[in-house]
Predict the 3D structure of the following.
Amino acid sequence: MVAFGLVLLTPVTARTEENVNTDTFKALDLFGEVFDRVRQDYVTPVPDKKLVESAIRGMLTSLDPHSSYMDAKEYSDMQVQTEGQFGGLGIEVTQEKGLIKIVTPIDDTPGSRAGLKPGDYIVALDGKIVTSMTLEDAVNHMRGAPDTQVKLTIRRGSLAPFDVTLTRAIIHIASVKGMVMRDSIAYLRIASFSAATTTELQKAFGTVKKKAGKITGVVLDLRNNPGGLLDQAVGVSDAFLEHGEIVSTRGRSPNMVQRWDARGGDITGGVPIVILINGGTASAAEIVSGALQDNHRALILGTRSFGKGSVQTIMPLSGDNGAIRLTTARYYTPSGKSIQDEGISPDITVQPAKVETIAETGQIREADLKGALKNTGPDSGAASPADATASTADAADDATAGKDGAEKDMAAAEAKDYQLTRALDLVKGAAFFSGQNAN
């Protein structure tokens, strides 16, 4: 029986391969027939090049939301974008159920200033319904000359669709911003992963460290970061890790496995790190979050991330025919987890919230009791309850006193950003218990 099974294996495999080839040729014959019918009978003549490019676009976009075809101009625009400067609205988008979904607006761009939010759907561009467009068509429509306008019709949750008119601008992406918070905590915000992000991170941290004198903790803000270049995600992760795996990718073939490991040299010197994430944290930003989480180098705070766990490879085509962006692999965190569709789960879930001080009325304290002993210690001149109430009311002003403009902006931002406040509290507590001098 075993010998018989082995004998049958070869002819069955051969017939299967032959059937596959036959099916392929039949499909190509079908394409050729449709192509010829369109060329001959469509109501107006269409250039052959346009027909072929449209067929290629359809083939790639039917695979997944991230595979696509770029003609020569689109390919050039993409190269400019990854270098950190391009024209448009400053929003990262994907296609979902025929609509254009905003993954995240990029900081300090027309999209973010107009109040667009992750999860918003663009249903029309200048009155044209987007279901008739490919993702590339929609992106091209939103790009254009600076100071020109485009009208977006937005659907947000259960609200009625509304229009937002944006003015296009040259988008300069400063991918990393740094700031000293609470005297010794480095706040590092990475907006996206472009060609110079790792270098910008090291420079920003150096500037913050020099200004603070000593860094006792780091808050790495990756909220609404749409991702970007894989090598930059690896570089940023490596900047915080002494050792350990960063990420691995696995393609179609069992042999298509790549792994990146940390080379050592934590730029922070090992201080506690908290990473902020949310539903707009995607792709390369999820690689960094997963790498530091699985290596127990950082605590993740916020809400579940976007869940884009695939790798796209840019493949230039021959001649002046542009390139294709093809999904070629999935990536896995050091623990072997694929975050595709699932995202990164925070260690501590903190929803965006507004914090308000609630006045305590009618509370009786020890000092209010008849005959209570007086405090005669060295700190007996402490503020009375009335003074404490006044201090609470003036806390926002006190927090910004003596600070420069940028620091005042950050202090004000912390007062409004509950997730950031919780992250700073967590870093400060971790620094205290690890022996760092967190002032």
Q: What stands out?
A: Residues 366 and 372 are 7 Å apart (CA to CA).
